[in-house]
Amino acid sequence: MMDNKPTTGSIETTVAAKRKFAQESLEYNIKHCDKNMFSTLFPEYVELYETREKERKARLAEMGVEDTKDENKVVPSNKAGDIFTFGAGFVAVLSLLFAFLRFF
């Protein structure tokens, strides 16, 4: 996996991509592989993943952050960001309006 020599069926990736795949492999195997087979072969890794998930969720709860891992993003659970989102949208609409009126 860590070698870059071209072989039959090989795919060239960057070192950063290899590290990302390695970090995500445990979660991927637990979520996408046959759970009975994976948990039978590697029970210690299933337990490690569950422990890490509990710790991650506890840290997010302490910070008051909503867990949105399925969406691959972390969003604050308070509504302060909504004001800035509304403001940015309002500015965008005004910009379009002024651009449109410029031609008349």
How would you concisely characterize the structure shown here?
The chain has 104 residues and is mostly helical.
Protein described:
The protein is mainly α. It has a domain at 1-63. Helix content is 66%, strand content 4%. The protein has four helices and two strands; from the N terminus they run αααββα. The protein has helices spanning 15-32, 35-41, 43-63, 80-102, and strands at residues 65-66, 75-76. The protein has a two-stranded antiparallel ribbon with strand order 1-2. A hairpin with an 8-residue loop joins strand 1 and strand 2 (75-76). The mean pLDDT is 79.
Looking at this protein, list some descriptive labels.
single chain, 104 residues, mainly alpha, two-stranded antiparallel ribbon, 66% helix
Kindly report the spatial arrangement of strands forming the biggest sheet.
1-2
Please provide the ordered H/E string of secondary-structure elements: HHHEEH
Fraction of residues in β-strands: under 5%
The profile of the biggest β sheet is:
2 strands, antiparallel
For the terminal residues, how far apart are their CA atoms?
Answer: 61 Å
Q: Count the helices. How many?
A: 4
Mean pLDDT across all residues, rounded?
79
User: What Rg is obtained from the alpha carbons, in whole angstroms?
Assistant: 23 Å
Structural class: mainly alpha
Helix-strand blueprint:
Blueprint lengths: L14 H18 L2 H7 L1 H21 L1 E2 L8 E2 L3 H23 L2
Antiparallel strand pairs: 1-2
Helix pairs in contact: 2-3
